[in-house]
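Glu/Leu/Phe/Val dehydrogenase structure dump, as promised
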Amino acid sequence: MPDAPVDLFAETDHEQVVFAHDPESGLRAVIAIHSTALGPGLGGTRFHPYESTDDAVRDVLALSRGMTYKNALAGLDLGGGKGVIIGDPHADKSEALLRAYGRFVESLGGRYYTACDVGTYSVDMDVVARETSYVTGRTVEHGGAGDSSVLTAYGVHQGMRASAAHLWGGPSLEGRTVGIAGVGKVGGHLVGHLVDEGAKVVITDVWEPALERVADLYPEVSVAASTESMLAGDAGALDIYAPCALGGAITLGVAQHLEARIVCGAANNQLTTPEAGVVLAQRGVLYAPDFAVNSGGVIQVADELEGFNFERARQRAHGIHHTTLEILERAASDGTTTTEAAERVAEQRIHAVGRLRSIHLP
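structure tokens r here:
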């Protein structure tokens, strides 16, 4: 049975949702601004062949809300926003389409800053920037931060180490078996961090070239036939499961049967329902909230707004280790899920800092 149509007012607390359509270039996009309490909404633009407009709207609403919490936890003076372009990035992406999208971003007057996401790259942001100044994550050649997946992967690695410290008493991942589902931009970098630390890595991806690229770079990794076979332990029992592709990796069924002790990955919106998070907690599986551990990328592109300095951005991303530990310890002490604990930490900062915006400055 298909999902019911989205009722924006009934289902969301977003400030603004914009539909962008340029028939000549083929642009069909949705931009959602969830909150500007801490500053303009910042979040990447996803280019994906959604089956319906409702699917695109649901995704952009969830992603933009996640960006509010992600940016707050990362200590940024930025709110939450996100854009999605409906289409196949391999077939539909063009200069005209990206520039049309840039003009719609510009029309929002700085309430939303865009950047890269699934299906878009730094070179695409250079094209978007020809029509708007509200864009970050550009190429190094154009003064930008370049590939934000570098620090996204670094931050996820820090989140894994914090999770290991919380669960096993020490941050080392040496000898631990980590299963990564999705070895594209972020997952590929994450493999390198784990191999360097001495972890055993199992990978899977629906795109064969991605598997081949990573296997060529790191011959010591094991390649599973599918995510299902990896979770079943066909390539060895997992200590950590890292979803690094699209969201929705942790369904209720996965939560009920997952044998890994930690879930910590780069994908956004990994839990299909809050109940999945409750089941993980009841079964003693430690879930590192995705919007806490995958914030390295937004830290990287946000730093570009100050004039990019990689080492400064890396040091900020290193703070993901401390933030993750704080969330896990709070969940344990409060008797809540880790997602609830992370949201409370973020909401406290949004309230404490956001309320200052009501103080009039001449």
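The radius of gyration is 20 Å.
lmk if u need the other ones
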